[in-house]
Specification:
By secondary structure, the protein is an all-alpha fold. It has 2 domains: 85 residues, no CATH class; 38 residues. Helices cover 74% and strands 0% of the residues. The chain has 5 helices and no strands.
Length: 124
C-alpha cells in the first residue's frame, strides 16, 4: 500500500537523475513526506483530542510540509550535534550556503544560455 500511494501521489520512482545520491535523496524525501502526511492524517482523524493533540494538530496544519520536514531535520541535527559535542549546524549552514550559491549560479547560467531547452543540466 505504501509503495502504491508513494508512486501515485508523491512521485516515487520518477526521479530522472543519473546521480545515485540524487535518486537516494528523492526516495528519502518521498518517504519522509509520506510519514508526515500519514502523521497529519492520524492527528486529524482523532475523535477526542486532548489539549496536547489539539495544539500539535494546529501546529502541523499551519506549517507546510516542506517547512515541517526542514524543522524535523534541523531538530535531528541539533540533537546529534549536542550528543557529539560538535557545532554541526554551523558547519552545515556554511556548506549549504556554498552549495546553494553554486547551484543557483549553474541554473541561471543554464537558463540564460539555453532558454529554449527546458531540461535541467547535469549539475554534478
Amino acid at each position: 500500500v505504501i509503495f502504491k500511494e508513494c508512486r501515485g501521489y508523491l512521485g516515487l520512482g520518477k526521479c530522472q537523475s543519473r546521480n545515485y545520491n540524487a535518486q537516494i535523496a528523492d526516495t528519502t524525501l518521498c518517504f519522509m513526506m509520506y510519514q508526515m502526511l500519514s502523521l497529519a492524517k492520524r492527528f486529524s482523524e482523532y475523535e477526542i483530542l486532548g489539549a496536547l493533540f489539539r495544539s500539535e494538530r494546529d501546529r502541523l496544519q499551519v506549517l507546510t510540509l516542506w517547512s515541517r520536514t526542514l524543522e524535523e531535520v534541523r531538530h535531528l541535527l541539533e540533537v546529534l550535534s549536542r550528543e557529539a559535542g560538535v557545532d554541526l549546524l554551523a558547519c552545515l549552514s556554511t556548506v549549504a550556503a556554498r552549495q546553494m550559491a553554486d547551484f543557483s549560479t549553474k541554473v541561471w547560467a543554464h537558463l540564460l544560455c539555453d532558454s529554449d531547452d527546458y531540461a535541467m543540466p547535469d549539475l554534478d
